[in-house]
Amino acid sequence: MTDLAEETLTRSTGNVFADLDLADPAELAIKSTLLGALQGVIDRHAEPEAGAIHVELQDDETQAIADGDPGAWTFDGLVSLLDRLGLRVAVRVLDGTGTPRLEREIVPVAANADPAHGD
Predict the structure, then answer these.
(1) Structural domain boundaries of the chain?
(2) What pTM did the predictor assign?
(3) Which residue of 46, 63, 82, 100 is surrounded by the most CB atoms within 10 Å?
């Protein structure tokens, strides 16, 4: 039998981006979650029995979603794509004890447009 070298284990922070010591790990984690939601919608609609996606995505958008790089996206870009696919984003802010302090649904600007003014 071979002797195994002593290994050091490091406990995860719960955020892989922080564990990799990347800049803005919280932002990357949130964007990654939004990208995962987009990927799920695309995957579900890719199956023949699911039907077509109601909103056409550009080829570059579909590829960028498939690439899954959260650093390539802005929050508003991700929220806008989710909105185009009929999904909404909700935000919940918790205090240090885990108690919710703020809960809001993000409604894209286009959804607030006044049709009477052609916005």
Answers:
(1) 16-112
(2) 0.68
(3) 82
